[in-house]
Specification:
The chain has about 230 residues and is α/β, with parallel strands linked by helices. β4, α5 and β5 form a beta-alpha-beta unit. α1 crosses α4 and α5 packs across α8. The protein is globular. The relative contact order is 0.14. It is about 45% helix and about 20% strand. It folds into 2 domains: about 180 residues, Rossmann fold (3-Layer(aba) Sandwich), CATH 3.40.50.150; about 40 residues, no CATH class. Strands 3-2-1-4-5-7-6 form a 7-stranded mixed beta sheet, with helices on both faces. Bound molecules: S-adenosylmethionine.
Length: about 230
């Protein structure tokens, strides 16, 4: 998808994004639980970069658990970021957050962060070299050995397994079970979203300046990887 299309899409979705995804809250809870455990060795004053923070779920989860952690929230959709800000305000964590309404590559690459989260973002970059550059942009904003927790929709879309996962995904997310609905979702995930097999996503992360990503999570179509920035960039 083109940057303007992404921003427009999420500006439209912002008002109902959280409500829509409550149906899959158990998956998100599991992803958050594992993320917390994976980041447990970070210092009490860690800086976390939340790329494509959307309405802020991952940021708020970590901010509530770690009173000393500070957050950089980067999000191009003004409407999504406004929801995130409101929720941060309600949670009393705004003073520990910096909010940037922009794409990641528009922000200065100061390697000050101990870790980054990037949930369901890189999948919107369809071109391989651009997706690698996106991961490079994250690496450039991390300290050497800084950690990346990344999650994306991932599958071999030409496989019979994908049909099974797609159907269950559609039931979970939209409750719809019609042939037309399934065809629509298949077309979106095949043409408009970069749903790639797990080994290919892993290779993109690695090419972006990280060591071998550890696949730590799968629930339906969502996969998660932990990687650390290689020292030399
Ligand atoms: C599916 S939402 C996920 C939001 C949140 N991370 C979550 O898991 O709920 C994807 C978000 O990534 C943002 N996004 C897309 N491309 C981006 C980029 N290159 N840099 C930063 N954010 C981006 C979109 O605007 C959108 O809010």
């Amino acid at each position: 998808m083109q940057p303007d299309d992404i921003t427009a899409l999420f500006d439209r979705q912002a008002a109902y994004y959280d409500t829509y995804w409550t149906k899959t809250a158990a998956i998100r809870d599991a992803l958050n639980l594992l993320t917390s455990a994976l980041l447990m060795s970070l210092p009490n004053d860690a800086h976390i970069l939340c790329v494509g923070v959307g309405t802020g779920d991952e940021l708020l989860h970590l901010a509530r658990q770690h009173a000393g952690w500070r957050f950089t929230a980067v999000e191009p959709s003004g409407a999504m970021l406004a929801v995130c800000r409101d929720k941060a305000e309600q949670a009393g964590v705004t003073s520990r957050c910096e909010f940037y309404q922009s794409y990641l590559n528009e922000q200065p690459s100061i390697p000050q962060h101990d870790a980054a989260t990037c949930f369901l973002v890189s999948q919107f970059i369809l071109e391989g070299a651009e997706r690698v550059q996106f991961f490079r942009d994250i690496a450039a904003r991390l300290k050497p050995k800084g950690l990346l927790v990344s999650a994306d929709l991932s599958a071999q879309v030409t496989s019979p397994e994908f049909e099974v996962l797609l159907r269950s995904w559609m039931v979970m997310t939209s409750g719809e079970t019609t042939k037309e609905g399934l065809a629509r979702m298949r077309s979106t995930y095949t043409n408009d979203v970069g749903v790639l097999p797990p080994n290919e996503v892993s290779a993109l992360i690695r090419a972006g300046g990280f060591d071998s990503p550890i696949p730590f999570f799968q629930a339906g179509l969502i996969h998660g990887w932990l990687a650390s920035r290689v020292s030399a960039q």
